[in-house]
Amino acid sequence: MARVVVDVMLKPEILDPQGQAVQRALPRLGFAGISDVRQGKRFELEVDGPVDEAALARIRELAETFLANTVIEDFTVRVEESAEEVAP
Amino acid sequence: MSTRVGVVTFPGSLDDRDAQRAVRLAGAEPVALWHRDTSLHQVDAVILPGGFSYGDYLRCGAIARFSPVMETVIEQARAGLPVLGICNGFQVLCESHLLPGALTRNDHLHFICRDQRLRVENADTAWTADYTAGQEITIPLKNGEGGYVADERTLDELEAEGRVVFRYLDGNPNGSRRDIAGVSNAAGNVVGLMPHPEHAVESLTGPGTDGLGFFTSVLKKMVAAS
């Protein structure tokens, strides 16, 4: 089993009032020096079987048609290495 | 035979009964459609009502767009069936790409509920024929994600083609680009707007009866077509 992560963010030109509200709260919390915050969504997909090019292509299609609204959002797709695979 | 207007109920729809009532008051026969229906039961027009379809999860209207009933609505709308999307229904129509653009979180982040003045910019659509261009109407508005956005080129195109059907008056309630409250597709049979005409069809329970024209407009179109 492998994990594929899809990150979805509002396009840079789209106003992100949620991110702005978070950013405006930062000085009150004592965090200085953060000039902008954008808030997005992260999807973690557990995939049965190998994540080969065909599987990734299907997931990109899923991201483009459903997980992201490409009128207002950009997305990225990446495979997350599991701990066992990375360990020697 | 009376005109049949279908009103879709998704899990989480709230204003389906109000829309059915508005259809009845306008003199048509409301037909309840279920989100799992693949047939539209020979209706002459469809209304996608307000509410929170499928809990508004992922994005407002994003899951509803892939419901069995929407597969048929999308196909029929492309063939000319009149479809009106109100609030969440407007979001579903944008997610379906039957209408351009998208609805985003209100710029001030607050849910807003008030009687909203609008200008009818286009009285040639299937749902606005009983109004006159430039007419000002008041109908309720209630939404948290009602900010209409599209890229500049799309906005210019909508303006040039007269597809901005309604514009907000007396202040923009949600940060919509160019004060746009509602738009139509190129053919004018598909219309979506954020404010709720179905809540302004009786003076007892609404700010007036300015919303009734939506439901009589589509009737008139049917009679003219038959």
TrEMBL record, chain A:
GO terms for cellular component: cytoplasm. The keyword Nucleus does not apply. The keyword Amino-acid biosynthesis does not apply. GO terms for biological process: 'de novo' IMP biosynthetic process. Pathway: Purine metabolism; IMP biosynthesis via de novo pathway; 5-amino-1-(5-phospho-D-ribosyl)imidazole from N(2)-formyl-N(1)-(5-phospho-D-ribosyl)glycinamide: step 1/2. Part of the phosphoribosylformylglycinamidine synthase complex involved in the purines biosynthetic pathway. Catalyzes the ATP-dependent conversion of formylglycinamide ribonucleotide (FGAR) and glutamine to yield formylglycinamidine ribonucleotide (FGAM) and glutamate. The FGAM synthase complex is composed of three subunits. PurQ produces an ammonia molecule by converting glutamine to glutamate. PurL transfers the ammonia molecule to FGAR to form FGAM in an ATP-dependent manner. NCBIfam families: phosphoribosylformylglycinamidine synthase subunit PurS, PRK05974.1. Part of the FGAM synthase complex composed of 1 PurL, 1 PurQ and 2 PurS subunits. This is Phosphoribosylformylglycinamidine synthase subunit PurS. The lineage of its organism: Bacteria, Bacillati, Actinomycetota, Actinomycetes, Kitasatosporales. The gene is purS.
